[in-house]
Amino acid sequence: MDELDMKSMVAYLLTQTTEPLVASKQPFKVQLKAGKRYSWCACGHSKKQPFCDGTHKMLATKILPLRFVPDQDCTVWLCGCKHSGRAPYCDGTHKQDFIQKAELPTAPQS
Length: 110
Known about the structure:
- By secondary structure, the chain is an alpha+beta fold.
- It is 18% helix and 15% strand.
- It has a domain at 17-91.
- The model has no long low-confidence stretch (mean pLDDT 88).
- It comes from Megalops atlanticus (Tarpon).
């Protein structure tokens, strides 16, 4: 890797955030299947909320998805604001002002 490429890579990595994007101001009601492995999006950039689509690999490399396997079939509320203290489950943090005032991501223009 030449010096210019190295500088570009360092600049890119420095722009990576460690704070998640608020994907939704409400939780997602989801039916989970026992024994199935799920990857909950922790960065907020996924287009398949509340689950990971791999977008963090380019936009938030310092934030990894939370992987989990439920013991039983269940319906749960998964966090959409990405700030829950009980991730991947909602703990009501989305009701706080800093979440309610946050800008939501916009869909890319075609």
